[in-house]
Design a protein that fits this description.
mainly alpha, rod-shaped
Length: about 350
C-alpha cells in the first residue's frame, strides 16, 4: 500500500531540490493522495448508497475539496502565465495546460456555486424548522385558549352548582344524621350533574376528583340503604320485645295473685301441722290414729309447696329483670347511634 504521508514527508525533507520543485512534488503527491482517498469513498458509497451518514461525510469531503481547489485560481491566473512564458513549451502544450487549468477552475466555480446554494437551503431548512416549532407552540396555545373559552362558558353553571353545595353544607350543621345525609346527597347530585361537554373542558385532576366524588356518592347511597334496612329491622325487634314485655306483665299480673294465695295457704298449712304436732305431745311423731298423712308428711308437703312457689316467683322476677335490662340496653344503643 502506497504511503502518501511518507512520500510528502520525503519530498519536504529533500534538500537537493528547489522550493519550486519541492512544492510541485508535494502538490502532485497531495493530488494523488486526495484522488486515492476519494476513490475509496466512492467505493464505500456504492456499497451502501442509502446511508445518510455516508452522504453527510461525502458532502463534507466535497466542501473540503472545493476549499482546496479555490487556491488553484491564483495558480491559474498568476503563476501559470509566467511559467508558460518562461518555459516556452510550444503553443499546443501551453494551450493544453491552460485548458486543464481552466477546466479545473470551472469545476471549482461550479462546486462553489452549488455549495453556496446548499448553504442557502440549509439556512432555509433551519428557518423552516424554527417556524415549524413556533407553529406547534402556537397551535398548543390556541388549543389551550379554546379549552379555556369553553370552560369560561361553563363557568357560570359550575359556580352555581358550587353555591348549591356550599348552601347545602351550611344547612347541614345542627341537623340530624338522616337530614344531613339527604341534604348531602342532594348537593352532590347537583354538583355531579355535569354534561359530557362540561367534563371535557375540565383538567384531568378535576375530572378524577369528580369521578371519586361519584364513587363516594354510590358508597354513601349503599350505606344509607343498609342503614335504612337496619332501622326497619331494629323497629321490628323493638315491636317484638314490647309484645314479649306485655305478655310477661300480663302473666305476672294474672299469676301474681295466685302465687301469693298459694304461698299463704302453704304457710297456714305448715303452721296448722306444727300446731297439731305440738298439741299431740312429744310422742305424736307416730302414725295418726286415722287413715291419711302423718303430721310430719303434711308439714313436709306444705314446705315443699311453699319452696316451689318461692322458686317460681324468683324465676319470674329474674325473667322480668332481664327483660327490663335488655330493653334499657337496646334503648341506649338506639339512642346512642343518633347524632
Amino acid at each position: 500500500m502506497h504511503d502518501h504521508r511518507r512520500e510528502i514527508a520525503d519530498a519536504l525533507a529533500d534538500s537537493g531540490r528547489t522550493d519550486r520543485e519541492t512544492a510541485l512534488n508535494v502538490l502532485g503527491s497531495a493530488a494523488r493522495w486526495a484522488a486515492h482517498t476519494l476513490g475509496r469513498l466512492n467505493s464505500a458509497s456504492d456499497g451502501n448508497s442509502s446511508d445518510d451518514a455516508d452522504g453527510a461525510d461525502a458532502l463534507e469531503t466535497l466542501f473540503a475539496l472545493e476549499d482546496a481547489l479555490a487556491d488553484t485560481r491564483d495558480l491559474a491566473a498568476e503563476a501559470l502565465p509566467g511559467l508558460l512564458a518562461e518555459a516556452r513549451p510550444g503553443e499546443s502544450v501551453a494551450q493544453g495546460t491552460r485548458d486543464v487549468m481552466n477546466e479545473l477552475t470551472a469545476v471549482t466555480e461550479r462546486v462553489a456555486s452549488q455549495r453556496a446554494a446548499l448553504e442557502g437551503l440549509v439556512e432555509r431548512e433551519e428557518e423552516l424548522r424554527r417556524r415549524l416549532a413556533e407553529h406547534e407552540k402556537l397551535r398548543q396555545e390556541v388549543d389551550e385558549l379554546r379549552r379555556l373559552e369553553r370552560l369560561a362558558e361553563e363557568l357560570d353553571g359550575l359556580r352555581a352548582q358550587r353555591e348549591v353545595v356550599d348552601a347545602r353544607l351550611r344547612e347541614l350543621r345542627g341537623r340530624d344524621l338522616g337530614a344531613a345525609d339527604r341534604e348531602l346527597r342532594t348537593g352532590a347530585d347537583a354538583l355531579l350533574r355535569l354534561s359530557e361537554q362540561q367534563l371535557a373542558v375540565l383538567e384531568p385532576q378535576t375530572r378524577q376528583s369528580l369521578e371519586r366524588a361519584a364513587a363516594a356518592q354510590k358508597v354513601l347511597a349503599a350505606t344509607g340503604h343498609e342503614l335504612s334496612e337496619s332501622s326497619h329491622q331494629l323497629t321490628a325487634d323493638q315491636d317484638r320485645l314490647e309484645h314479649v314485655q306485655e305478655e310477661l306483665e300480663r302473666i305476672q299480673e294474672e299469676q301474681g295473685k295466685v302465687l301469693v294465695s298459694l304461698t299463704r295457704y302453704a304457710q297456714a298449712d305448715r303452721e296448722l301441722a306444727q300446731a297439731l304436732r305440738e298439741a299431740a305431745g312429744t310422742d305424736s311423731r307416730g302414725a295418726v290414729p286415722r287413715q291419711g298423712l302423718t303430721l310430719e308428711e303434711v308439714e313436709a308437703l306444705t314446705r315443699t309447696v311453699e319452696e316451689r312457689l318461692i322458686d317460681a316467683d324468683r324465676a319470674l322476677s329474674r325473667v322480668l329483670t332481664d327483660r327490663q335490662r335488655s330493653q334499657e340496653d337496646g334503648g341506649t344503643k338506639v339512642t346512642g347511634a343518633q347524632p
